[in-house]
């Protein structure tokens, strides 16, 4: 069965996208960035396309969503 890439999250900055991409991959969830070149080179086009998107394999989507939610909750309570 072929696994397809699906949308996980959209970002305004490359820094945030790369940070969460690395977090996912350190925890065994493969991911990739979509539109990374166009949004960095021509940010004025962010409104005309999907912007900078983090994509994961469909079978990892629920785990990725849960991981990022748990991570955000943990970092927000440590303040």
How would the global form be characterised?
globular
The ordered string of helix (H) and strand (E) elements is EHEHEH
Radius of gyration over C-alpha positions, nearest whole angstrom = 13 Å
Proportion in β-strands: 15-25%
Euclidean distance between termini CA atoms = 44 Å
Number of strands: 3
Query: Largest sheet, described in full?
Result: 3 strands, antiparallel
As residue ranges, the low-confidence spans are none
Helical percentage:
40-55%
Give the mean pLDDT: 84
Widest beta sheet: strand line-up: 1-3-2
- The structural class is alpha+beta
Q: What is the tally of helical segments?
A: 3
Summarize the structure.
With 79 residues, this protein is α+β, with helices and mostly antiparallel strands.
Can you walk through the features of this model?
- With 79 residues, the protein is an alpha+beta fold.
- The protein is built from 3 helices and 3 strands; from the N terminus they run E-H-E-H-E-H.
- The chain has helices at residues 14-26, 36-41, 61-77, and strands at residues 5-11, 31-34, 52-57.
- The protein has a 3-stranded antiparallel sheet with strand order 1-3-2.
- The radius of gyration is 13 Å and the shape is globular.
- The N and C termini lie far apart (44 Å).
- The model has no long low-confidence stretch (mean pLDDT 84).
Key terms:
22% strand; 3 helices; 79 residues; alpha+beta
Topology, element by element:
Blueprint: E1 5-11, H1 14-26, E2 31-34, H2 36-41, E3 52-57, H3 61-77
Antiparallel strand pairs: 1-3, 2-3
């Amino acid at each position: 069965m072929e696994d397809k890439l699906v949308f996980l999250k959209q970002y305004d900055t490359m820094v945030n996208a790369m940070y969460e991409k690395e977090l996912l991959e350190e925890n065994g969830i493969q991911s990739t960035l979509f539109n990374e070149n166009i949004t960095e080179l021509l940010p004025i086009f962010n409104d005309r396309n999907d912007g900078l998107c983090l994509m994961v394999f469909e079978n990892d989507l629920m785990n990725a969503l849960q991981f990022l939610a748990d991570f955000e909750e943990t970092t927000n309570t440590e303040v």
